[in-house]
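Continuing from yesterday's entry. The apo prediction looked reasonable, so today I'm repeating it with pyridoxal-5'-phosphate included to see how the binding region is handled. Same sequence as before; SMILES copied from the compound registry.
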Amino acid sequence: MPTELSTSRAIFDRARRVTPAGVHSNARARDPHPRYFARAEGAYLWDADGRRVLDLVMGNGAVVLGHGHPAVTESVQRAVARGLTCGVEWERAVEAAEAFLRCVPGMDLVRFANTGTEAVTHALHVARHATGRRRLAKVEGSYHGWTDELYVSAFPDPDEAGDPKAPRPVPGGPGLDPRVVADVLVLPFNDEEGTRALLEAHAHELAAVVLEPVLIDAGFIPATPGYLRLLRELTRKHGIVLIFDEILTGFRLAPGGAAERYGVTPDLATYGKAMANGYPIAALAGREELMRSTEPGRGPAYVGTFNGHAVSLAAAVATLPLLADGSLQSELARRTARLRRSFAALAREAGVPAVLAGDGGHFQWYFVEGPVADYRQAARSDPERCRRFTASLEAADMLVARNPIAHHALSLAHGEAELAAIEEAFREALRRARA
Ligand SMILES: Cc1ncc(COP(=O)(O)O)c(C=O)c1O
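Holo prediction written out below.
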């Protein structure tokens, strides 16, 4: 990080007096202090010291069209002028649901929520009600939010995670209920034999299997072609609800997300992020009978003061049509492939064992001998090389996540000039990573 960020430093001194770590999500904490931002446009942020930063985080993958996209901003401004906020329904919610289902034709019905954590929690309640069973199975390295049962084995220390073929559930941090954590069955991602054995043994007690079809919170680790099909086959055979968490894959890998891309349709799926270009909204979608079970008096509760918030819906209504025909996804795929190729060439040139994985505008660097097929391999990414690499990108005024297990994103606003700047920065950063 540049050293002369004196305004950010001063803001941090104030911030930490009123807020732990001076930030409202721990992912934004930085040593010696976070960078505070004043405005955003396209692919760039301007920090409180007036420095322009090329954004490679893009709202943790949410801002798919670029910051301040005119169509989205205008729709939001019109909504604000009407004065509606939350706690009532309006026609825009119907338009948003229709636009959503046009993008994701494999889903029968959709309901909105605010955050991914909420949407996945709703999915679990629906699954328990439908099956009459209690337990949840999830794959190792897949993140679904921070509740007691979801924040399990998302980013475990491999030394604590046990047998890679039958991982033990590791809490994401202290404060989670250990009984709830212990109840989660953790499946080895991309290991068909290990997963089959665990699912067959525990099928009678499982309500749901949930996973990110591509582990994007762990960087970018796609399911092998057979893995999702195996999960579909086994969950169908045993009456378990299959939930795809498409909060990162959704709308980016294809309009219909990973389900469309891989040709495997889950029973329920959760969405968020890209669908409103950075405004807070999430969605639960799925098979009609499961979704209708959330209607009043029929099954699990589905409530929330801010559900269907006017501002977020206005953003979604403007964003979703731009994600519907697949052209944005092809463009993002092309740009990501270019970065993958240039990174590979630059890493070879620098003599650094490293790989850039990615698609749909999502990407992540791993300092390992390539390719990465599961969380345990990703967790071997060399932390010291990663530290030098990200420090160099920060010195080149790029916003990045420092952790070796993290993910980065492009938007439609990352055009030729930005891609060239990223490649140039990669060249220097890889040289530094080798040193
Ligand atoms: C795949 C996935 N699921 C769930 C969540 C949780 O969403 P939220 O942060 O909106 O609660 C995230 C957030 O990063 C995510 O990436």
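Comparison notes:
- Residues 6-68+326-434 form a domain with the Aspartate Aminotransferase, domain 1 fold (CATH 3.90.1150.10).
- The radius of gyration is 21 Å.
Will overlay with the apo model tomorrow.
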